[in-house]
Amino acid sequence: MAIRCYAAATVVICSRPDLSSNLPALPSARPRRSSYRRAAVRAMGATPSSPLPSGQAPAKADKASMSDEDLKERLTKEQYYVTRQKGTERAFTGEYWNTKTPGIYHCICCDTPLFESSTKFDSGTGWPSYYRPVGDNVKNKLDMSIIFMPRTEALCAVCDAHLGHVFDDGPPPTGKRYCINSASLKLKPQ
């Protein structure tokens, strides 16, 4: 008989009653695996709507002022899929993956400045990569969407638009690689 145990912070859920007699009572129906991931993420301190960082520059819009219907009308299907449904565009297909134009990259949803072109570098991944965001305009959150492969999600700090992911294999001075979907950005040339 296989024993299945799932852990989320200090809560452990086991499929064998004799092994879980000292654990708190749980509903009889076993939740789907995705609910374990959500519980684990919440237990680790990540919330769907974290407060804005202190020192945040005044925003032009916030998540509450943008309705889903407005965004569906204003954004392309791919932009909506990436920013609101946490999708990913295919590598080497985005508008900005190979762009060298100087300027500032803004959030496609709320127009918040996110990255300066001076921090852009060629990571060879097929997505635009930056080593530093503008101020506190990009926030990070634990992403457990792929089980056993936790990643750090990059979000717009103002409207929570999904931008991409952050990795620790970037160049100096930060050592970070913000791997960002072109569909979440709008370049304003200088």
What does this structure look like?
This protein has 190 residues and is of the alpha+beta class. It has two domains: 5-43, no CATH class; 63-189, Metal Binding Protein, Guanine Nucleotide Exchange Factor, Chain A (Beta Complex), CATH 2.170.150.20. The chain is built from three helices and eleven strands. It has helices at 33-43, 68-74, 77-84; strands at residues 5-8, 11-14, 103-107, 113-116, 120-121, 129-130, 138-143, 151-156, 162-167, 177-180, 185-189. It has a six-stranded antiparallel sheet with strand order 5-6-10-9-8-7. A hairpin with a 5-residue loop joins β3 (103-107) and β4 (113-116). Mean pLDDT is 77; it is low at 1-59.
Characteristic terms for this protein:
190 residues; alpha+beta; Metal Binding Protein, Guanine Nucleotide Exchange Factor, Chain A; six-stranded antiparallel sheet; three-stranded antiparallel sheet; 3 helices; 11 strands; 14% helix; metal ion binding; oxidoreductase; peptide-methionine (R)-S-oxide reductase activity
